[in-house]
Structure prediction request, 245 residues.
Amino acid sequence: MIPAWLSFFDAILAIVLASVGVLAAHFYYLAPFQGFQLFAFGFVLSLVGTIAGLIGISMTRTGVRAGARPRAIFGTVASLAIFVPILLIFLSGRGYPPINDITTDFDNPPEFTHATELADNQGREMKYNKLRYAQRQSAGYGELAPLKATTDPDATFAKVEATAKQMPTWVITSDDPKTRALEGVATSGLFHFHDDFVIQVRADGTGSLIEMRSKSRDGIGDFGVNYKRIKTFFAAFGGDSGAAG
Prediction:
């Protein structure tokens, strides 16, 4: 019975593709986005398997087709086991704007200097695109202000360095006390997606402003990861600083 068999094989293939996508990206056999594409294809197949399985279950209730019913049930259950969790992941990103470059300053954002020299960023546009991102960021997240500190810029930057070095999944790739700027790469846990970030300390009267920008290398949206990274760093910096907007 075609729907039952289709559901059965789609479920197996969906499990294989989703698993291979995650494992291959996690253990660096594939680039993060390639692994994610396999994962997403597994999701599509799990949807097909679920639909075919439900049709197969309906068509194998009685008669000579009843022998195919176990395959239809297996295909439906296995497909749902892949489809539902991935669907929930995608739905969790609905509330975030479809952007992947977040900054605390639209008009004078911290710009990447060292990141443009990294091999993985060759050919990528690293300049901030205000027309593309600023309005969407404001609509999706509201105001994200730079962090205020009462200490002078040099002292503030020293604390920024110390805090950044303690952030999990962060690797500092450039540290320049003269410009009071540091850059680094943050790596996600599952697919090992890489995001570039830059933090710059600027003078503000007798105190300082901490400006930050975080940008994903892949995809269009980021599930709010870059915004959360900035907020998390500002919270970790703490001390005598003011709150982010």
Remarks:
- The chain has a mean pLDDT of 92.
- The domain at 101-237 is CATH 3.30.310.80 (TATA-Binding Protein).
- The beta strands are 101-103, 147-149, 170-176, 181-187, 194-204, 207-216.
- The two ends are 60 Å apart (CA to CA).
